[in-house]
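User: Hey, quick favor. My workstation is busy. Could you predict this chain's structure for me?
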Amino acid sequence: MDVRAPYLPYEKLREVADDFLKQFHSAGFLPVPIEVIIEFDFLLDIVPMSGLKDGFDVDAFITADLTQIRVDGFIQRSRPNRYRFSLAHELAHLLIHKEVFKALKFSTIKEWKAVMCSIPQDQYTLIEWQAYALTMATDSVESVSSEESERRKLSASWILPPLVVSIQGTSDRVTCCLSSQQVRAVSGMGTPAQATTRSGRISEGL
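Assistant: No problem, here it is.
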């Protein structure tokens, strides 16, 4: 499938993040009320699906008509950090990849998986990294402690304030579409990202 990730330099991602915060979360407290923003500001339905993770190795996805975020039911009930991250990640796709996702044709989770695997590897990796970076943390929220703020400045140039928790220090295992090398790269812990594998998402405690 001929899919191209948009050109989004850091300055553009920062602009998207700043605009998002000003419009939807100017109060700046943590955690960001991502459920409320999705349902009442973006008018998206959050739909739990039983067996999404176990059956398809998918935490959440946005539907082809861009009206629902479907999320694994167990993650929604029992993994609050992971649940908020998954919602924020899908919302990030809507914010910066809306045109890309509008072009994808699928109606079932099996078709969604097939479509994802048909995207060229380099473009898939870039799309996921852009959404991942926009989802994760920066020091721009004033309520973060000065020590935590400084640690984030040193560890990475994150784009959005913590919609969930920092990738480091969470008790939950971090599961995402990025390879372990990519996770370390975007969190300031390693070398430039290598290719993502889409046949199976990694689950790695960092």
